[in-house]
Write a structure and sequence with these properties.
By secondary structure, the chain is an alpha+beta fold. Helices cover 31% and strands 23% of the residues. The protein has an 8-stranded mixed β-sheet, with helices on both faces. The protein has a 4-stranded antiparallel β-sheet with strand order 7-6-14-13, with no helix packed on it. The chain is globular and about 70 Å long.
């Protein structure tokens, strides 16, 4: 293997492609930390692959994989030392860009009765996200469109997002609940990354094909030990991603989901799924694109101190659609229907794309194992039956 070299000023920096070894990956983490960035990536902890701050690449889940099914998640040992051979975990990058709970302001009443209100200071973190899966890269782009791409901009989200440095990792090991191919979001990385990595393990060693997507990405990459990208590594990386695309565990029905959802509002399937659904909202909490929030005001026992917090909300909550006359969606079928038809259908009307990226988290983290691809397929089959069944009425 050729000795690592460093090129300070690559030609056409945004098209820079090279190879990193494990030491080079750690050097990448250190280069980002030296820039004052908080590096966040996957690590094995508490029986799962979770996202956490990384002080070095040694904290990555080398040698760990996951066993997934509907309502089932298990961390398992692999027979190699792959760092990114695992599917999406319980968290997504939404946890950092749109935190679950954020204080917006606090207020105090002084001895003289004067009220002082203090807005919350913006989060000063400058993040570098290492290990962004292609499905999650698409999810970030979707949330960008929702939260900063329209008339109602979320300034807090925009600040976190604008400074974030994204390192995508293409998938080589899809899980049994992954269906990104049918949603057009993976396993190859789409646009939006600063750097993209493809992990390769073969007889030539353990390495990462790295390519820059922005000038900022190339600048960082040029500072870490690397070597020119050889044809064997390029071929192995491409074949790894192609093989992953052929091994997806799930798929959406090959139909226009927007049209399917619009025509399924009265489907009998909603009663079937509601008989199983606990309306717990786990799917919305785990989903990397769900963005709904609410506010809550709290005070201390004296009444002299108050705070306003913004926290995640879910369309499964009875209070989510509560009006003076009561909840608009009081039944379980109506609440599940709202979530699914919005995610796969009316999201197009609002934001011009699907709200689903095929990560499979909602399947894995549903306590009763409800499968979004199975439900979409069932609605499709019901629509086909309805369209081919003779209707009563005059000829």
């Amino acid at each position: 293997m050729a000795a690592p070299t460093t090129t300070r000023e690559p030609e056409n920096p945004e098209n820079m492609v090279c190879v990193l070894d494990r030491d080079g990956l750690d050097a990448l983490v250190q280069a980002l930390r030296a820039r004052g960035r908080t590096v966040v990536g996957p690590t094995a902890r508490d029986g799962a692959i979770v996202l956490a701050e990384l002080e070095s690449a040694d904290a990555l889940p080398y040698g760990w994989g996951v066993e997934l099914e509907a309502g089932h998640y298990r961390l398992v040992r692999r027979d190699d030392e792959a760092a990114f051979a695992h599917s999406a975990g319980p968290q997504s990058w939404k946890n950092y860009l749109l935190p679950e709970r954020v204080r917006q302001w606090s207020a105090d009443r002084g001895p003289d009765g004067e009220l002082t209100v203090r807005p919350e200071r913006p989060d000063p973190s400058s993040y570098a996200f290492l290990g962004v899966r292609p499905c999650d890269l698409r999810a970030i782009a979707i949330q960008d469109r929702v939260l900063i791409g329209g008339r109602h901009r979320d300034d807090s989200y925009q600040q976190r997002r604008t400074g974030a440095f994204l390192i995508a990792v293409e998938c080589g090991e899809p899980g049994a609940t992954c269906f990104c191919v049918s949603m057009g979001s993976g396993p190859a990385a789409g646009p939006g990354y600063d750097l993209a990595l493809t992990e390769v393990l073969d007889d030539a060693g353990h390495r990462f094909l790295a390519r820059a997507g922005t000038a900022a990405g190339a600048e960082v990459l040029a500072e870490v030990p690397h070597r020119p990208a050889d044809d064997d590594t390029r071929t192995a990386a491409r074949e790894t991603v192609e093989a992953a695309a052929a091994r997806m565990g799930r798929a959406m029905p090959p139909v226009d989901l927007h049209t399917l959802m619009a025509g399924s509002l009265d489907a009998k399937r909603w009663d079937d799924v509601a008989a199983r659904c606990l309306t717990c909202g786990n799917c919305t909490m785990a989903c990397p694109t769900c963005f709904c929030t609410t506010t809550e005001d709290v005070t201390d026992l004296t009444g002299d101190h108050a705070e306003r917090w913004r926290r995640w909300d879910s369309c499964y909550d009875l209070d989510f659609s509560h009006l003076p006359g009561g909840s608009v969606r009081a039944s379980a079928p109506s609440r599940y229907r709202q979530w699914l038809t919005h995610k796969l259908g009316t999201w197009y009307d609002q934001f011009g794309s699907s709200g689903c990226v095929g990560c499979g988290r909602c399947i894995v983290w549903c306590p009763v194992g409800i499968d979004i691809t199975e439900e979409a397929q069932a609605l499709h089959q019901e629509a086909l039956t309805r369209d081919t069944t003779p209707q009563d009425g005059p000829p």
